[in-house]
Design a protein that fits this description.
This protein is an alpha+beta fold and 240 residues long. Helices cover 36% and strands 29% of the residues. The longest helix has 18 residues. It starts with a strand and ends with a helix.
Length: 240
């Protein structure tokens, strides 16, 4: 049976993978409302890569596949500004079935980085009804975890592609495997027992933009994950 639920959606200029930790600074009124609601409930919301052109009620629209973020802790950073600092951890991947528009449309002059911009949207929310939700919500279905494991040989093949990528990107083909292993150790990626999370992290090391990582997040089986990871590494290697 497909598991569905309705959750808040937080479009960002990044891709969050399962079991990855992420610190967030929350300052927009709509997302402060979202955090307040989450803290009273299951302490979770969806993080999706935001489209660079598509919008919903003039707000940045999310990509169709994202990751549920579980709130680990939440605290005030600055009592004057009212900013919140969250630590979240990626949980399970999901696919959006239906988007639910926020109560307010984004105005053309809205600037979230100014006091005036913040006050203007808060006033609009007050006039519209403070019980209404300023943030995007979505009905989602949970994507099943990839149930197969990555072999050491498969992992070593990806690492070899990564090493070739580094040699080309820095213009130094004389870099030794030992030197590059030291880089892997710094990112905690030197292992003989690889997991899917290692593949995610290796891909993140070579990505130029979060849009490179969205296809990796959307993979639903090991064959697809290896194929798209290889394509990402090889495309960077062969790019001019």
């Amino acid at each position: 049976m497909i598991e569905t639920k309705i959750i808040p959606i937080f479009p960002l200029d990044l891709v969050l993978f399962p079991n990855q930790d992420l610190p967030l600074r929350i300052f927009e009124p709509r997302y402060k409302q979202m955090v307040d609601d989450c803290m009273l409930g299951e302490k979770e919301f969806g993080i999706c890569l935001g489209h660079d052109s598509d919008t919903l009620s003039n707000w940045q629209a999310p990509y169709n596949v994202g990751t549920i973020a579980k709130i680990i802790d939440c605290k005030d950073v600055d009592s004057t500004s009212g900013h919140l600092f969250l630590n979240v951890r990626g949980h399970r991947k999901f696919r959006i079935i239906r988007l639910i528009s926020p109560s307010l449309e984004k105005t053309k002059d809205y600037d979230p980085f100014t006091v005036q911009g913040t006050r203007s949207i808060e006033q609009l929310h007050h006039n519209d009804g403070i019980e209404k939700k300023m943030y995007i919500q979505a009905e989602i279905e949970i994507i099943s975890d990839i149930d197969s494991s990555i072999s050491l040989t498969q992992w070593e093949n990806l690492v070899e592609l990564w090493k070739n990528n580094i040699k080309k990107s820095v213009g130094n083909p004389e870099l030794t495997s030992h030197q590059l292993d030291h880089v892997l150790e710094q990112y905690y990626l030197k292992t003989e027992t690889p997991t899917i999370e290692y593949v995610y992290s290796l891909c993140a090391l070579v990505s130029q933009t979060p849009f490179d990582l969205q296809p990796i997040l959307e993979c639903t089986n090991m064959e697809e994950l290896l194929q798209k990871s290889t394509k990402l590494l090889e495309s960077d290697i062969n790019s001019e």
